[in-house]
Design goal:
- The chain is 72% helix and 5% strand.
- By secondary structure, it is mostly helical.
- The chain has one domain.
- A two-stranded antiparallel ribbon has the order 1-2.
- Helix 2 packs across helix 4.
- The two termini are 59 Å apart.
- The mean pLDDT is 82.
Length: 141
Amino acid sequence: MFKEFKEFAVKGNVMDLAVGVVIGGAFGSIVTSLVKDVIMPPIGLIVGKVDFNQQFAILKEGKTPGPYSTIEEAHKVGAVTLNYGAFLNTILSFLIVAFSVFLVVKAINKLKRKEAETPAPAALSKQEELLIEIRDALLKK
């Protein structure tokens, strides 16, 4: 059983998948930072100096009644919040990742189509095969 597992784990596909998962995790961090630190601040500025990560709705007041300036402040007093700003950031991150994966798959498919379109050399006729044999025989002399 261990031998079978070892053969499975060492196969190229499993190793490729492992590398893909690690790179995907790192790419996810990059996209999260891109959305949180680069894309959303200008959008928030255009909308009216809004930090989307701190957009929330109070579902239930905490021990101390609001208003609360941050989600953390609301949670400290036991308020229940609906954090729609963080959800918007997550949706945007997903769309960026999905679009990036789409572009990669599209590029790979394009390369595969080019490879498939390249015609294989035509099979040689009997006459051509005989001429090649004669040429090779003459070159050996």
